[in-house]
Design brief:
Elements: E1 8-12, H1 19-33, E2 41-45, H2 51-58, E3 64-67, H3 84-90, E4 94-97, H4 100-105, H5 110-122, E5 126-131, H6 135-139, H7 143-154, E6 164-168, H8 182-200, E7 207-211, H9 216-223, E8 230-233, H10 240-248
Helix pairs in contact: 1-2, 1-10, 5-7, 7-8, 9-10
Length: 251
């Protein structure tokens, strides 16, 4: 079981990895973590085509399996979609929901995300709910208001900390090599936590992650920011050494 007090490091492989390459990556991470000292919860979120085989590799390793999305319905005529129950059935413990690449590329609204969170919770999955502002919204001084609105509309009533993780990913930082300053990250995390506390119970019980151009070179600095409980990793999660170095920086 994930430990609520441990930092949480999530590898989002996105649409990367054929079977052999994905297997090699997962095996490398499992092997490297055997020598790891940091008390950290790790999650790998491969493409849906690799969930079964990666799940087999992770079995017994202490590393959790996650998915990159789910449909809000349990069954039905939804060609190409995968339900939360299907993900749980194959061994997933986590699912990423509301990533900006889904919101922008697939037109997902906050309401859609909230419905998926309901489905994930019902299936026993931990929902990783993503929020973040665009460069234009930050430049206009609207970042905090945008993030607050996204957060409150994307979380269904009754969301609990043990089943919900928040990932703050500014859109302009994803894959760009740019990151907000430590103070900017701290301010956003404080606002998110305050909103969670007002609407969903004890704020400190929630794990709030930062995502967006997190690399081995900057991970320790980001993860040392007060209120940052882990990271959602994109490109660096496709490299065994980089991903495991990020995990060790939690120690």
């Amino acid at each position: 079981m994930p430990h609520a007090k441990n930092p949480l490091i999530i590898g989002n492989w996105k649409m990367n990895g054929l079977r052999k390459a994905g297997q090699a990556l997962a095996r490398g991470i499992v092997q490297s973590r055997k020598q790891g000292r940091a008390a950290v919860d790790l999650v790998l979120c491969p493409p849906a085509t690799l969930l079964g085989t990666i799940g087999e590799i992770l079995a017994g390793s202490g590393i959790f399996l996650g998915a990159q999305d789910c449909h809000q319905k349990k069954t039905g005529a939804h060609t190409g979609d995968v339900s939360a129950d299907m993900l749980a059935d194959i061994g997933c413990r986590f699912v990423i929901l509301g990533h900006s690449e889904r919101r922008e590329g697939h037109g997902e609204s906050d309401r859609d995300v909230a419905a998926k969170v309901v489905a994930a919770h019902a299936a026993g999955l931990i929902a990783i709910v993503c929020v973040g502002e665009s460069a234009a919204e930050r430049d206009a001084g609207a970042a905090l208001d945008v993030i607050e609105a996204q957060l409150m509309a994307s979380l269904p009533e009754g969301s609990k900390a043990e089943k919900t993780v928040i990932a703050y990913e500014p859109l302009w930082a994803i894959g760009s090599g740019r990151t907000p300053t430590a103070d900017e990250i701290k301010v956003v995390h404080e606002r998110i936590r305050a909103n969670l506390g007002k609407s969903f119970g004890p704020a400190q019980a929630f794990r709030i992650l930062y995502g967006g151009s997190v690399m081995a070179a900057n991970a320790a600095a980001i993860l040392s920011i007060p209120g940052v409980n882990g990271a959602l990793i994109g490109g660096a999660s496709l490299n065994v050494e980089a991903f495991c170095e990020i995990a060790e920086s939690c120690g």
